[in-house]
Amino acid sequence: MREALFIKQNTQKWKDYENAKSISPDELAASFISITDDLAYAKTFYPKSNTTKYLNGLAAAFHQSIYKNKKEKTSRFITFWKYELPLVFYKHRKPLLYSFLFFTVFSLMGALSARYDNTFVRLIMGDDYVNMTNQNIAKGDPFGVYKQGGSFLMFVMIALNNIKVELYTFVMGIFLSVGSVYQLMQNGVMMGSFQYYFFSKGLGWQSILVIWLHGTLEISAIIIAGGAGLILGNSLLFPKTYKRIISLKNGAKDGLKIAIGIIPIFITAAFFEGFVTRHTEMPVWQSLLILTCSLTFIIWYVILYPANLNRKLNHNNLLVNETTY
């Protein structure tokens, strides 16, 4: 697009943003996102023009209005999870979908391998774990491993380990996405073989009611972390119209937003594993309630809400642009 046409299409919108005296936090967030999008476009195609300088100043003014005092910092903290992270999910919905597909395929591979190779589960899970679980099954307490140790200590250790695995899965994406795919393969094969092991013992339904109390959030977050790694790696592989270093910076920024943004999901999953999963005797309806709520939250927050939010923002921008003519 020629710079003159770009200016013509957006001048009125920019003036409205510039002259706005008091707007709600929602409108402020939407305006800031719109301006930064325009600024990114201008930096790409008109890097040395006065338009880019003007948009940079306008974006800086919005940034200052968001961060100028403690109250607004708190608002900014909320805005990250309410607007920024969901919009990043929507922007990179394809890498997130690919991560889900990779994990699903690797999980099926793990289950099939466990079915046709009696030694596969021991290879993946280790002899000690399999022997301990067999002993627990013989005692009539197949999921006794979740009852070991104190709840709080277990919660802390699991949370720290899961966050470490998540960040590692993201960072490994720097190796042209292959590193993140490898991490998805490791976790997927382990999950598939682990789950098949309980089905082979006639404990499939019970394992779902127990393990997936925390596993729904934990596995979902691992898949999302894999998607963040693909974003990072793909920014190097497919820079599009950007210089490769600029594309890498953008990919790293968006991937890091996701990696940081899903940490509360891992903490919640660790809390369930430490304090809830150990109650293997809980009624079926309670387990199903937790499972359903966890899965519904993931589908809503990662897929449905971002799509709806993006649609609303595009609709608002369209209305603003129409005032130009």
Mind explaining what this structure looks like?
The protein has 325 residues and is mainly α. The chain folds into 2 domains: 3-88 and 311-322, no CATH class; 92-305, no CATH class. Helices cover 83% and strands 0% of the residues. It has 13 helices and no strands. It has helices spanning 3-19, 25-45, 50-67, 70-91, 93-116, 120-125, 127-138, 151-171, 178-200, 204-237, 244-261, 263-276, 284-322. It starts with a helix and ends with a helix.
Strand content: under 5%
Helix content: over 70%
Q: For the terminal residues, how far apart are their CA atoms?
A: 18 Å
Largest sheet: none
Number of domains: 2
Rounded mean pLDDT is 88
**Any idea what the shape is?**
elongated
Question: Structural class, from secondary structure content?
Answer: mainly alpha
Q: Could you give the order of the helices and strands?
A: HHHHHHHHHHHHH
| E-strand count | 0
- The gyration radius over C-alpha positions equals 24 Å
| Total DSSP helices | 13
Low-confidence stretches: 318-325
Pfam families: SpoIIM
InterPro entries: SpoIIM-like
Protein name: Stage II sporulation protein M
Organism: Mucilaginibacter xinganensis
What features would you highlight for this structure?
83% helix, elongated, mainly alpha, disordered C terminus, 325 residues, 2 domains, SpoIIM-like, 0% strand, Stage II sporulation protein M
